[in-house]
């Protein structure tokens, strides 16, 4: 199994953590959307990361990939079978992919990617405005998190997506406001202590070093 992309992306990390939670072996195929190889462009028609190949089966998009992995390698489940829990875990995944990550993107772009990876100047006004914008989805998720558990009772794709977004934000020097979001802060510690998360974090540190970050 190959994962195409860089684990610094929250979407790519989501797939790697999901595969690791399931104890799957995978190789990294570092893939740059702006300089796509023929193989990557074939698997990811819109040249976005992540993409996956598993034998002769290929797929792009983090949610599509996690859905495939969960059906093909059911243990442990990351999309719960119980209908309401399943719906809610997909809902949280969507809130993160379509609300939190787009709101957070200017922080990552202007305080990490541009200055540290691309060697260009970041737009601090855009980053500061985004700090405000991420509060709404985080406030919502803070309200949904259970005191001592996960977003929806069992660890699921939504938990992976949220932790993954927070980790990418940390590269931009952003930290959680623990007074405003104490449940997310405690939950993140629990998530980051999981063996699958730690394994991907180690792989990611190697990739980051190779990028000079
Ligand atoms: N919905 C997609 C989003 C993937 C995505 O936007 N990836 C970004 C990296 S974080 C990307 O490839 N951007 C390059 C581009 O849009 O050209 C998913 O969940 O995988």
From TrEMBL:
The lineage of its organism: Bacteria, Pseudomonadati, Pseudomonadota, Alphaproteobacteria, Sphingomonadales. This is Glutathione S-transferase family protein. GO terms for biological process: glutathione metabolic process; L-phenylalanine catabolic process. Keywords: Transferase. One of its GO terms (molecular function) is glutathione transferase activity. It comes from the Bacteria. It comes from Croceibacterium soli. Pfam families: GST_C, GST_N_3. Residues 82-208 form the GST C-terminal domain. Residues 1-77 form the GST N-terminal domain.
